[in-house]
Amino acid sequence: MQPHQLNPLIEPQFDAVTDFILNNLGSNVPLVEKMGHYIVESGGKRLRPLLALLSANACGYEGELHIRLAAVIEFIHTATLLHDDVVDNSELRRGNATANAKWGNAPSVLVGDFLYSRSFQIMVEIGRMEIMQVISNATTVIAEGEVLQLLNQRNPDTTEDSYMQVILGKTAMLFEAATECGAILADASAEDREALRRYGRHIGIAFQIIDDVMDYLSTADEMGKNVGDDLAEGKATLPLIRAIQCGTDEERQIIRQAIRQGGLEDLQPVLDIVQRTGAIEYAQQAAQQQVDLAIAAIAVLPDTSFKTTLVELAGLAVARKR
């Protein structure tokens, strides 16, 4: 079951978002439109736009502008994927060839820029300055998070705090913006807006931790990307940070060397160490703690089917395999 199928009341709204996205990828440059459709239609659960819809509904919104808001969130997310795949030299995304693998790095960057620009055009159409403020701030923090991750690349001394700062920026901020803006659109109370903002932040952190866990736990078919991609790029994610903390001197040296060098030469020894030290379970528990905080944050919201779906989605964030 796809996340949007958890609530029959949200399905037609979710379908309307998909239609809106596809109808707003038009460009006078055929390659822009072709690449835009390719990346948007290449799969993915569209969890972030779904959260925007659910948050607006959970606060009693009855208009139609949340469809545009959800599309804005998806356009921004898609733009970040295009840019990320270029930075990471990725060749596989959601089980398909990445746009940069098909068309090259330069077109991918430029189409990502187009999608960013398109999202701000739609925000102007929504006409809510508070929403523009939240999302413009989020895109700035996302860019900073990506740069910080780049600076941490191949650094075996990356701390857990630094790791959390990276994922808060590059992943959780867009989740947070989606849920907070849904509340803003519904003219929610300050208490409900803050509750949904915190919910989005915690779910985003949990989502990224599990994404990083899957790099050492899943198959390529399950993940939709290549196993060991993070290690190949020299990313010190939470499983590696914990394994360094708990491993023997020899094991620490193996992991530190693997992070410094990048590549997959030491993939199997690293996988064995990550499993033996309990680093996977540690990271999973950290993700579960974030889910618990997210669910606690929205306890103040009225009891509706939309709130129930938000709680269910929180559980899916740690149970997913892709």
UniProtKB/TrEMBL annotation:
Biological role: Supplies octaprenyl diphosphate, the precursor for the side chain of the isoprenoid quinones ubiquinone and menaquinone.
Reactions performed catalytically: 5 isopentenyl diphosphate + (2E,6E)-farnesyl diphosphate = all-trans-octaprenyl diphosphate + 5 diphosphate
Organism: Nitrincola lacisaponensis
Cofactor (UniProt): Mg(2+)
Record keyword Metal-binding present: yes
Family membership: Belongs to the FPP/GGPP synthase family.
NCBIfam families linked: PRK10888.1 (NF008140)
Keyword line: Magnesium, Metal-binding, Transferase
InterPro entries: Isoprenoid_synthase_dom_sf, Polyprenyl_synt, Polyprenyl_synt_CS
Protein name: Octaprenyl diphosphate synthase
Molecular-function GO term, any one: all-trans-octaprenyl-diphosphate synthase activity
EC number: 2.5.1.90
Entry's Gene Ontology BP terms: isoprenoid biosynthetic process
Pfam family, one: polyprenyl_synt
